[in-house]
Amino acid sequence: MRIVRAGADDAFVLAALSLQFALSLGGPGEPGYLDRAADHWLRHRHQLPAWFAEREGAHAGYLQAVLLPETAWPGQPPGSRGRLWVQAMYVAPDHRRHGVGRSLLAACEHWAAGEGVGVIRLRCEPGAEQFYDAAGYAPATEVREKRLRPLR
Hints:
Strand order of the largest sheet: 1-2-3-4-5
Radius of gyration: 16 Å
Strand content: 15-25%
């Protein structure tokens, strides 16, 4: 298995994996989605760090995050990069239970630590609690949300 930090040449790989993820959740197909998703990621890639996994000659999964800058606050160390939100993590069914998700998360964490990120947050979907617990992620009860429109 190989984990790759996505660069400009990988925009369509990320777009294709995000489409697979959406379809796996019952989302609709959309004509032109791959172009639209690739263009969006290319325009915002500096705030949307992403990684993908290659396993047995296939794209096995991806992780995309959102880098949120820290606001100025008394006592905050200079150079703090803020928070990283894992926006999407998907492992294709044929590649699950082979360490793909764990490796994607580890690559993200390694990068974030090197960038001075203070905290990584993510949404834990039902059924994934054991995976994230084993990776060291604790429930963060202070997070609240208000959905202004359906997510899917």
